[in-house]
């Protein structure tokens, strides 16, 4: 018996949701390398045999929402492209329970946003529309509410105020969580570095080397 799980095990994970099946796969393989193919095999619906298109997002949520540590080739040079590893099953303390806008408030946010993702990066809005295909992350765009300034939250007042909310696609919900630790209100610097491109990482490394007086 090896540590690898082959596609013959496709129906091994019978949990109800994609997220639960991926979680079970990692918990069964603590400290072991898990490949993209294994994740897709485990995430595949045990009854319909349908491969989920959003598995990558579910994986990100295991990190950001559930608090698992799941390393990828972005975090560890020991991992090859498309390899992942859960070193232990410890959970980081969870952020406070999610507050959502009131229905009427969310409706006016969606109208303002023209039912498109409002994420801004370098002055460019994402603009992916509800129901569209996400050309980068894959999957179908579903807009969900994001609290603009989670550290200043005043739950009762904010739930009715459209200015406190923006509509984000799933990919940018995950990205925002990487950039911003809503539990402490601090920027998640490591999350930013992990999601940065190689050239941005090189730039950061250059900065740190200069800062610490390395050559
Ligand atoms: Zn977006």
Question: How does the SSE layout of this entry go?
Answer:
Blueprint: H1 18-28, E1 33-35, H2 36-43, H3 55-64, E2 71-72, E3 83-85, H4 103-112, E4 120-121, E5 124-125, E6 144-147, H5 155-158, E7 165-168, H6 170-179, E8 180-181, E9 186-187, H7 189-195, H8 198-211
Antiparallel strand pairs: 1-3, 2-3, 4-5, 6-7, 8-9
The structure holds zinc ion.
The site of zinc ion has 8 residues, from helix 6.
Short overview:
A three-stranded antiparallel beta sheet has the order 1-3-2. The protein is 34% helix and 11% strand. The chain has helices spanning 18-28, 36-43, 55-64, 103-112, 155-158, 170-179, 189-195, 198-211; strands at 33-35, 71-72, 83-85, 120-121, 124-125, 144-147, 165-168, 180-181, 186-187.
Q: Main sheet: which strands, in order across? A: 1-3-2
**Small molecules held by this entry:** zinc ion
Beta-strand segment tally: 9
The amount of helix comes to: 25-40%
Task: Tell me the count of domains.
Answer: 2
Can you describe what's shown?
Mean pLDDT is 83; it is low at 1-9. This protein starts with 17 loop residues before the first helix and ends with a helix. It has helices at residues 18-28, 36-43, 55-64, 103-112, 155-158, 170-179, 189-195, 198-211, and strands spanning 33-35, 71-72, 83-85, 120-121, 124-125, 144-147, 165-168, 180-181, 186-187. Helix 1 (18-28) packs across helix 2. The radius of gyration is 19 Å and the shape is globular. The chain is of the alpha+beta class. The strands form 4 sheets. It has a 3-stranded antiparallel sheet with strand order 1-3-2. A two-stranded antiparallel ribbon has the order 4-5. A two-stranded antiparallel sheet has the order 6-7. The chain has 2 domains: 7-85, Arc Repressor Mutant, subunit A; 103-198, no CATH class. It binds zinc ion (ZN).
